[in-house]
Design goal:
This is Exocyst complex component 3-like protein 2 isoform X1. This protein is an all-alpha fold and 491 residues long. 65% of the residues lie in helices and 0% in strands. It has helices spanning 2-8, 18-39, 44-62, 69-72, 82-112, 125-143, 145-175, 184-196, 198-211, 217-250, 256-260, 263-279, 284-307, 316-339, 350-359, 363-376, 398-405, 411-427, 457-460.
Length: 491
Amino acid sequence: MAVVRGRLTPAYPAGLGAFGVYLRGYHGALAEWLGASARRRLPLADRYALLHWHNQVYPREVLGLVDMVALENGELGPLLSPGTLRGLEDECVTDVKAQTRAALLRVLQEDEEHWGDLEDRPGSLAQDVCELLEDHTERAPRISQELGERMAHCCLGGLAEFLQSFQQRVERFHENLGIRELPPDTYISRTIALVNCGPPLRALAERLARVGPPESEPAREASASALDRVTRLCHRVLADLLFQELQPHFNKLMRRKWLSSPEALDGIVGTLGAQALALRRMQDEPYQALVAELHRRALVEYVRPLLRGRLRCRSARTRSRVAGRLREDAAQLQRLFRRLESQASWLDAVVPHLAEVLQLEDTPSIQVEVAVLVRDYPDIRWARDPVHLSAPVPRRKHVAALLDIRGLHSSAARQEILAVARDLELSEGGALPPPRDRAFFSDIPVPHPSFCLGLPLALGRLPLSRLARPSWACLPLRPRPPSPWRPRAQR
């Protein structure tokens, strides 16, 4: 057409409109050829090429270089009708849906065959999935925005199905008793590789949802849910393996030897620090989640023997020694998890709080410390000392257990302290329980019956006006920084 315009058109009389005749002939021939091609069952790659040439190349590289008067006057019709174009796009989406689902399943099966291998091999599952889907999601928008949105929605649906299948296979992998016989290093490496599939696939799902139409949201949520389950399961497995190794050290806590020797905590810190090196191979997002969960679980296992009453304080001197040991251990654990880059700083204060409750002597100070403890760790459970009332005796709770351990036998003082915890809890009556990654005391059951004194009815309901009750506004402000979810592994 450029040659016609530059060489032939000047040879015709100006009023004849020779170039328009050539342009309409050329355009008509193209329309006829493209129509015939569209009626054939073209391979997917050829269909992409046809649509791209029709929508992008022809307007830009042909019509864009010639006199547009004929086009502007409506003398040139479309090369392909809107119905034909829509049909070609529908065929593309249908073929991509079928081809990608089959290809994703094949990639997953091939990768799964190597999960039980003794040889450690770098995994490429997430990369293969991303490349497979991005081949389509990058080509379609170059044809039209609408096709790009439809293709993103199609690929996101396929990705959601793939991730649900991936989740089921990961669950079977960890349930397989034969897999458990793998060398620990191999098992850990394979589990880390499965976790590392999460971030790139999650990012892909988010990207497709942004490009796709609003109805893509359910598929995005399904993808995120499947990846969350895989991450939580693998974290639980890794944490269980680690805490099996740590359990002998935790069993030495809160005993007489623990008061005078750092051996137990040194074993815990040394094992955690050494094993954490293997976890560094995990991508940053799941690593941060896991190390925060290890932080939470380590503190739970540290506090558990204390609240289970393994050690009882029968004098102020013993309480002071226990509180001092708790503070030293808390500082050492805090230094460890800072080195491991844990962001669960909300855990740092729990053991110092318990130490304060054990060591403080006057009831108002203990009330304030218990109130701060209940405020900062809302899953802690309070309990009234049972009295001679018709109401059933409450189950044992953590604050009451702590008072038992410190040897507080004065029923009046106990009621004053427990009333503070009770009132603070009741004041937040409709509050939701903390999320799983912020649970602490709810993971520490306290099964034994709480301290009990047979009290006359007159002492059962001491008026609150007689109690040393601090104002909540006077409590020290200790904001809890947000911590990202850190699931931990437990098998």
